[in-house]
User: Fold this.
Amino acid sequence: MFRFLHHQHRHHAMHGDHHHHRGGGGGGRGRGPKMFDAGAMRYVVLHLIAEKPRHGYEIIKELEQLSGGGYTPSPGAIYPLLSLLLDMGHVSAMADGNKKLHTITPEGEAFLAENRQFVDVILARLGEPSEGRVDLRMMMHELKAAVIDKAHGPGASDQRAAQIRAILQRAVSEVKQLD
Assistant:
């Protein structure tokens, strides 16, 4: 897991956030904004923890408030994300009674700063009443996150990488054939 952290500073200036997409983050499917499907919620959760140390429950409530009640993430979406952020070294957790209080680390702050534009786009979209307009930039971020997650995440293999390449080649070909 930490090999991704090792490379982050060398690549971030040019390539953004592609070494950090591992694991889930797609919880709440069918009940919330599509933008969260490819792990984008990780950025919002990190942003909320950067504002002030928070418990998982507070994060769920805050997301609900930010979306004007239009999106309520399930604990099954948030808690694995918090574990992932801990594993990545982006947050630290301290026992607070029977809960954990999550605090952002300097690494987490640097990662958030490097991806500020993306985070701002997600936060803006979260507050929108509908997803009527297709945001190609967001879709590209989602595609990139999904590819990195599947290519480097649990179960990654040469066979899976070949499958991903084939899918991407088909997509490129289809886009080029548009009138």
About this structure: The chain has one domain: 2-176. The radius of gyration is 17 Å. DSSP finds eight helices and two strands in the chain. The domain at 2-176 is CATH 1.10.10.10 (Arc Repressor Mutant, subunit A).
